[in-house]
Amino acid sequence: MVESSMQHICNKYPMFLQKIDVQEIVQRYNAISADLVAYEMLVYRAWQMKAATRFTKLARPLLSIYQLKDGLNIYLVNMHPQVQCLLREIRELERLQLSIPESVQQCWMQSSHIEQNYLLVSVS
Questions:
Q1: pTM above 0.70, yes or no
Q2: Domain limits of the chain?
C-alpha cells in the first residue's frame, strides 16, 4: 500500500521524478516505508509470543459467586478483557491474511462458542 501511493504519484506526474530534490524525497520515502514494514513485523512477532498466554485466562472459572454479609449473592461472569481483546486482534489478523500461532488457533476456532456462552451467561 505504501509503495502503491508513491507509484501512483510517479505515474500521474512523470516530470515529478526529473527534479533533483524529488529523487532525495523518493529515497527517504522508500527508507521510511522499509522502516515501517520492519516495525510492523516486530510488533506482529511480539503479538505472536504474547497471544498464547492470553488464552490461559480461559482456564479460570467462568462464573463466580460472592456472598455478601447480608446473605445476598453476587454472580460475576469471568470473561477476561484480554481474551476479548485477543479475539478482536485475531479477527483483524485473519482479515489481513496474517498467520495465527497454532497455540491460539484451536481457541480461535471456538471463539464464536466462547462469545455466545459469555453473552448467554452475562445477560441472564
A1: no
A2: 2-123
